[in-house]
């Protein structure tokens, strides 16, 4: 039974220094999140290098909606809803592949890879009002691509992708991609898929939580120490020089550059310990110049959340897929650096596997924390979660972004600020009705 | 001449028992120094240098795995999964120097936090004679669900 039919006031649930546990447990809130966060806003769908050739496709999700990311015959990326315009049969059954057309098995309608309706079986039984051009596969109303990252919005109106990302997040995406000497990622190395029985927001918050690693991932750091003698727990200690940043629009960053600078550039790129390290550095300098190369290698990728469902950490593109209020899937795509020496790409892959995946030695412990979180939320005498860490010490950087120490909860507050803003948008405002009208017009 | 089937099956059953009972050190002692332990992701076979695996480990990495598991702070195994598996359909192929390739199937049920999960698949072992027994030089586990969402497979497989 629903407790109330009244609209939820998100001002009551998200305060500056705390959030109410209901944001993780109320199925009504989840339904509203689907609409407001995952359908109206921009969400990450896939990377264009996953579909290099015409006809290549990947079946993806935007919120709960099945979407085909496909490269059409003309080489353009398309985002098509996976639903026959006749009787809603899913036209694509497999997760990835190459096809000349999508054919609905139910009554045999066929669609081009750009969505156009190609053929209707026994079309003589429709009258002249039936026009094939009205019945193409529906497109995701808005699509945008930045550095190969394909985003979609199921709302025909709203801010542009460029506005949504903003300059600081785009700079971090650049640092992630520019580790390739030709500035291109190759996202064809497969995917780790894992899930957990807790709310999706635990994963995005934890991805940007610089306070937990020394506790949850002690075994990982112990193994590094046992094998190499290096103790890197200082990175995540309260005296660490690393930072947490609010990049605006819900995007957030754990910034390890101060540590990397102090401890030698190219930390994450594993240079020059790999045999091809110096050759790699030379090609990087040839392309980017010395200064920018140092900047890229010092960053070593990034540790970035692009609100709401994309995380770039280490070598991976991480995609968060909410299933239910207390069920989430997470897909991790390790990236290859195009034109980087093969052993660097292999080192990246092996490093990724040691921490990630359903049998990995790091992220699996995070999932356990999320499930313990969800269990803890059942105890509601005091329903609040406390987010004030470092609140009294955060400051504004020259670029306007809020900054704190790496163990501070600047990043969590960044997420909740945006979440509240998005969720406070009216449910059936005039703008919303106009948007619905625009959807109908777009498909006519 | 094919090696003794009973001898080889006994080895597989023993390994299964050690995995089911979380006997990490005894299980680790089964591997050769040049061992390779492989659980592919997304597909049954591919170039592991180009494609991500669920597990792709040499002996040092296997040691990391068991060191972590016995630490008491590997939270994905706190509480531990209760695991029971059946090994069957054993086929044996003789190789050089007494090494044997063994194909088998498994059915595994894991219980954790009141939830039962089933895993199944095929295993390829390359076993090298070691005194009266064998050591594992190579083990590849082909899960039928290697392209599905898996919540927790941190017990030994």
Poorly predicted regions of chain A: 436-444
> Under the CATH scheme, which class of chain B?
Alpha Beta
Strand elements of chain B, count: 6
Low-confidence stretches of chain B: none
- Report the principal-axis shape of chain B: globular
CATH topology of the largest domain in chain A: Naphthalene 1,2-dioxygenase Alpha Subunit, Chain A, domain 1
Radius of gyration of chain B: 15 Å
The Cα radius of gyration of chain A reads 23 Å
Note down, in words, how this protein is organized:
- The complex is a heterodimer of chains A (444) and B (157).
- Chain A has 444 residues and is an alpha+beta fold.
- Chain A has 2 domains: 44-146, Rieske Iron-sulfur Protein (3-layer Sandwich), CATH 2.102.10.10; 167-423, Naphthalene 1,2-dioxygenase Alpha Subunit, Chain A, domain 1, CATH 3.90.380.10.
- Chain A has 13 helices and 23 strands.
- Chain A has helices spanning 22-25, 27-39, 161-177, 200-207, 213-216, 218-228, 257-262, 277-288, 290-299, 342-355, 363-376, 410-423, 430-443; strands at residues 18-20, 43-47, 56-62, 65-71, 77-81, 96-98, 101-103, 110-112, 117-119, 142-146, 149-153, 185-186, 192-196, 243-248, 251-255, 303-306, 310-313, 316-324, 327-334, 336-337, 384-386, 395-396, 402-405.
- In chain A, strands 13-19-18-17-16-15-14-23-22 form a 9-stranded antiparallel beta sheet, sandwiched between helices. Chain A has a 4-stranded antiparallel beta sheet with strand order 5-4-3-6, with no helix packed on it.
- In chain A, strand 3 (56-62) and strand 4 form a beta hairpin.
- In chain A, helix 8 packs across helix 9 (290-299).
- Chain A is globular and about 75 Å long.
- The two termini of chain A are 39 Å apart.
- The model of chain A is unreliable at 436-444 (pLDDT under 50).
- Chain B is α+β, with helices and mostly antiparallel strands.
- Chain B has a single domain (5-143), classed as Nuclear Transport Factor 2, Chain: A (Roll).
- Chain B is 20% helix and 43% strand.
- Chain B has 3 helices and 6 strands, in the order H-H-E-E-H-E-E-E-E.
- Chain B has helices at residues 5-20, 24-28, 59-69; strands at residues 31-40, 53-57, 82-94, 100-112, 115-130, 133-143.
- In chain B, strands 2-1-6-5-4-3 form a 6-stranded mixed beta sheet.
- In chain B, strand 4 (100-112) and strand 5 (115-130) form a beta hairpin.
- Chain B is globular, with a radius of gyration of 15 Å.
- The mean pLDDT of chain B is 96.
- The chains are: A alpha+beta (444), B alpha+beta (157).
- The A-B interface holds A 95, 188-197, 216, 218-220, 222-223, 226-227, 329, 334, 336, 342, 345-346, 349-350, 352-354, 357-359, 361, 364-365, 367-369, 371 and B 39, 41-43, 46, 49-56, 60-61, 64-65, 67-68, 71, 73-76, 78, 113, 115, 147-154, 157.
């Amino acid at each position: 039974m629903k407790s109330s039919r009244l609209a939820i006031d998100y001002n009551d649930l998200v305060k500056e220094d705390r959030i109410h546990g209901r944001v993780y447990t109320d199925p009504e809130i989840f339904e509203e999140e689907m609409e407001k966060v995952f359908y109206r806003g921009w969400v990450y769908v896939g990377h264009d290098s996953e579909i290099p050739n015409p006809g290549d496709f990947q079946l993806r999700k935007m919120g709960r909606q099945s979407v085909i990311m496909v490269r059409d015959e003309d080489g353009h990326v398309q985002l098509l809803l996976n639903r026959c315009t006749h009787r809603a049969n899913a036209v694509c059954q497999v997760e990835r592949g190459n096809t000349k057309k999508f054919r609905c098995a139910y009554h045999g309608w066929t669609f081009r890879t750009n969505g156009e309706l190609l053929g209707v079986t026994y079309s003589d039984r429709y009258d002249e009002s039936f026009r094939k051009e009205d019945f193409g596969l529906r497109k995701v109303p808005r699509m945008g691509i930045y550095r190969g990252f394909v985003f979609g919005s199921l709302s025909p109106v709203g801010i542009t992708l460029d506005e949504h990302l903003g300059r600081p997040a785009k700079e971090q995406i650049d640092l992630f991609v520019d580790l390739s000497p030709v500035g291109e990622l190759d996202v064809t190395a497969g995917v780790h898929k894992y899930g957990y029985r807790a709310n999706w927001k635990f994963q995005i918050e934890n991805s940007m939580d610089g306070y937990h690693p020394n506790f949850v991932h002690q075994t990982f750091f112990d193994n590094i120490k046992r094998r190499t003698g290096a103790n890197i727990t200082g990175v995540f200690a309260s005296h660490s020089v690393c930072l947490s940043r609010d990049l605006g629009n819900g995007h957030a960053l754990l910034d390890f550059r101060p540590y990397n600078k102090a401890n030698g550039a190219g930390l994450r790129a594993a240079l020059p310990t790999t045999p091809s390290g110096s050759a790699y550095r030379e090609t990087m300098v040839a392309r980017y110049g010395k200064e920018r190369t140092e900047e890229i290698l010092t960053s070593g990728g990034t540790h970035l959340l692009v609100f709401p469902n994309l995380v770039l950490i280490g070598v991976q593109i991480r995609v968060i897929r909410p299933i239910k209020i207390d069920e989430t899937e997470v897909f991790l795509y390790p990236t290859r650096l195009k034109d980087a020496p093969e052993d660097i790409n292999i080192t990246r892959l092996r490093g990724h596997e040691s921490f990630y995946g359903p049998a990995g030695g790091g992220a699996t412990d995070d999932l356990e924390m999320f499930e313990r979180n969800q269990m803890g939320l059942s105890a509601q005498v005091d329903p609040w979660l406390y987010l004030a860490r470092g609140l009294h010490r955060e400051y504004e950087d020259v670029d306007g972004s809020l900054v704190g120490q790496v163990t501070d909860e600047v990043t969590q507050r960044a997420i909740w600020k945006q979440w509240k803003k998005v969720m406070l948008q009216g449910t059936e405002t005039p703008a919303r009705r106009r948007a619905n009208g625009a959807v109908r017009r777009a498909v006519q | 001449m094919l090696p003794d089937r009973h001898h080889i099956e006994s080895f597989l059953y023993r390994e299964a028992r050690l995995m089911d009972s979380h006997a990490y050190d005894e299980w680790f002692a089964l591997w050769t120094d040049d061992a390779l332990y492989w659980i592919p992701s997304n597909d049954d076979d591919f170039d592991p240098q180009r494609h991500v695996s669920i597990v792709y480990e040499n002996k040092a990495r296997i040691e990391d795995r068991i060191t972590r598991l016995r630490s008491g702070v590997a939270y994905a195994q706190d509480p531990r999964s209760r695991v029971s598996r059946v090994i069957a359909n054993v086929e044996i192929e003789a190789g050089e120097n007494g090494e044997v390739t063994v194909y088998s199937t498994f059915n595994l049920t894991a219980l954790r936090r009141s939830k039962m999960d089933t895993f199944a698949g095929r295993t390829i072992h390359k076993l090298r004679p070691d005194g009266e027994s064998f050591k594992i030089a190579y083990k590849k586990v082909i899960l039928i669900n290697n392209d599905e969402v898996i919540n927790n497979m941190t017990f030994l497989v």
